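Lab notebook, bench 4. Still working through the backlog of constructs that have no structural model yet. Next entry is a single chain of 344 residues. Request: give me the structure tokens for it.
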Amino acid sequence: MKNIIFILILLFATLSIKAQSSSEKLIREGVSLHDKGRYKEAISSYEEALKVNPSSMSAVYEMSLSYLKLNNYERAVSLSSKVINANFQPLLMDAYIVKGTALANMDKMSDAIKTLNDAIVRCGDEYLLHFNLGLCYFNSKDNKMAAHHLRKAIEIDATHSSAFLLYAYALNDLDQWVQSFYAFHFFLLLEPNTERSKDAFSEMLDILNAKLEPGSVRLTPEDGIDREWLYKNIQLKKPQGTDSASEYSYFVEASKLIFFTIAQMQNDSQSGLLWFFFVPTYEEILGSGHFDTYCRYVSVAYFPESLTWWDKNKTQVDNFIEWFEHGQGEADEEADFGDDSDLE
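Model written out:
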């Protein structure tokens, strides 16, 4: 009798393993279809996987992602909620992001924000959770909270360009144009040559070219920086000509002035992302001997001349990238970003 029971247990275990293997194969096929944009076919594969293994949370999650791509947000919310309620740890954070994104796309922004805040409680401080929260707050016109969460995202992982771009826009909307200028610069360092790079560079030039009246809030001190003095001296760099060569030269000289001036103001009493990340980063770039290369590098999407220069000076560009990744980049990893004082 004991032998029969043992054989039955072994048989059921073998069948379970085979079913799981078959289910995983169908899920892989579905993921491949999803990656090719064939979302409905992908969903069919996930449904077949669930017939084989009804408890597969991986299939449920992948299906929620395909429904999200199909703009079927209610179904995406329903399926991602199943993964969350099952507390399926391997995909818990991802399921929260799908649910939050779907809710935001349904214009249920407060629900999306609550969902993502719950995710941080359960999953911890993760880059993508803070980034998505920052995006939700930005779309809700709450730029202070957007900047707070985007700053958190940057502190966790300073290699994702989207966080810097959105951070720059949020800070600019908060009239914190000095920090916004730094954030636009760093976004362009990470992503120099895309369509949104061109838009970002244009926004950065708008900061430099802004026509500010005396008494403007954008001329009041920002985190201890005398913006009125800085702005007046930036304007002195404006060229007489309007050609692209003059505009490029103005960008270089104005950037150099900002980076050098603010670097001289740094002291041990300061805290926040501006003073412990942006300012030392650009102080090092200024003193690296690569500043001219850097300026060409970050302006390739906006100035055709920079792209031509880039193509003709691969060695200089490669040397700058190598210096940044293996020299300066290591120092940034050790930075202590301090508190949120740069957002007050």
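Notes after review: The two ends are 75 Å apart (CA to CA). Confidence is low (pLDDT under 50) at residues 5-19, 329-335, 340-344. Flag for follow-up if needed.
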